[in-house]
Amino acid sequence: xxxxxxxxxxxxxxxxxxxxxxxxxxxxxxxxxxxxxxxxxxxxxxxxxxxxxxxxxxxxxxxxxxxxxxxxxxxxxxxxxxxxxxxxxxxxxxxxxxxxxxxxxxxxxxxxxxxxxxxxxxxxxxxxxxxxxxxxxxxxxxxxxxxxxxxxxxxxxxxxxxxxxxxxxxxxxxxxxxxxxxxxxxxxxxxxxxxxxxxxxxxxxxxxxxxxxxxxxxxxxxxxxxxxxxxxxxxxxxxxxxxxxxxxxxxxxxxxxxxxxxxxxxxxxxxxxxxxxxxxxxxxxxxxxxxxxxxxxxxxxxxxxxxxxxxx
Length: 312
Hints:
Blueprint: E1 2-8, H1 13-22, E2 26-36, E3 41-48, H2 50-62, H3 65-68, E4 70-75, H4 82-90, H5 101-111, H6 116-135, H7 138-147, H8 151-163, H9 166-196, H10 202-206, H11 220-238, H12 244-249, H13 254-267, H14 270-307
Antiparallel strand pairs: 1-3, 1-4, 2-3
């Protein structure tokens, strides 16, 4: 279950309590009159079945509670209660299938914002992948894929497209464009430095690299893998299954493709640079297309589930 903490102005107490009473997924309502100081109002705590949260949040927003008070939400953790069991049983649908838009939007907002940490992680991941490409080390490439933070803006773009929100979409696109441009530029410099130190060489990069040649040789499977990864990534995000995102991160070659393009540009290997750019474009487009379709299907399926009978 999820726990809501509400700061409710006095004049909104009755309509808010009416919404909580009418919601079949609510349990353990506690009211502390005058418990909130800034903003002033009552402090209301309650546990809500995950499958009932999205609709309840919408009703509370219609009352203007976020503007005049506050709404915060956290995982309730272990809850031993017959009332909680009944609330989850009566709420339509399954909690793991619930799509809580406010939660998803908040997560992708944090992950899709252009920041110093985002740029640093993407640049470091690209440099690691460059080492893997030159050394033909699949282990280094996989490690770089796990470090790369690019799925956050990709997920943010998917959510923004489905919600038809221009500013979040532009924010995600900015993070991707600036992030990859900066990472490639820094990795070009990194490759030239490593070459000057005798750690990289054009001959090694141009030689056969059976373990990493897939990075710059895209085919139909590149798009298929990216599409499947996009589906898995958005499902893990909306269901709060964060552990699955690691698998998504190491299944697509966005960072390695950018890294290989950077090294290829440093050595004037323009055929490899072009192939890597196509690989990058295929992966990015596959993830976004899959993510948008996944969210649309989830949204439609969840609306149908909420209209159906309870699970009793």
